[in-house]
Amino acid sequence: MLFQNGHLKVRKLEVQDIYILSKWLSDPSVLEFYEGRDNPFDIGKVNRVFYNSEDETVKCIVEFDGKEIGYIQYYKLDSDTKNVYGYLNENIFGIDQFIGEVEYWNKGIGTLLVTSMVEFLINHKKVDRIVMDPQVCNERALRCYEKCGFKKVKLLPKRELHEGEYRDCWLIEYINSN
Fold first, then answer.
1. Where are the alpha helices (DSSP H) in 26-173?
2. CA of residue 171 relative to chain centroid, distance
């Protein structure tokens, strides 16, 4: 287990999680906001994308009350990404997440998840900043991240290919003030 905060638990991805990831990433409700409805994942694609041993991203499953409900990952930003975003030599991590069980949406669990991950990264990775780049049109996610202390920094035009078109994203950041 990576960490637990009340009913929320985050643990590293395991081999048997391939099936739940495939379920979530073939659900049009989830894909509307993560990867795109035109980009469903079968078992083979989940294996290629999430189980690449050369990837330094730490991939995790989110549980709530003992039920797997979502996914979160974190990674240290490389030099090229820092340059694109306009950062210097700080310790900067990125995170990405989704709640795959739609009945758990709009219950404050996303806010709990993101604030818990921020706390984990500050305490265990000594981060200076945490960044994300959600699509401008993902208003629910942006409200969640702003509640967690993230601020919009820069508009990233045509940053992400989603459902056949390049979409604008916001670079948002959380600055460790400790």
1. 28-31, 43-50, 79-85, 109-125, 139-147
2. 13
Where the chain has pLDDT below 70, the residues are none
Helix or strand holding residue 35 (H, E): none
The whole-number pLDDT of residue 30 equals 96
- In angstroms, what is the C-alpha Rg of the chain? 16
The pLDDT, as a whole number, for residue 135 is 96
Q: How many CB atoms lie within 10 A of CB 22?
A: 19
Asked whether the beta carbons of 100 and 30 are under 8 A apart, the reply is yes
Q: How many helices (H) and strands (E) does the chain have?
A: 6, 8
CATH of the structural domain 3-129, one choice from 2.40.10.10, 1.20.120.230, 1.10.287.130, 3.40.630.30: 3.40.630.30
In this predicted structure, what is the pLDDT of residue 84?
86
Model pLDDT for residues 90-137, shown as the tens digit of each residue = 899 999 999 999 999 999 999 999 999 999 999 999 999 999 999 999
> In which residue are the tokens 């706390």 written?
119
CA dihedral sign of residues 29, 34, 37, 39:
negative
Domain boundaries, the chain: 3-129
* pLDDT score, position 89: 83
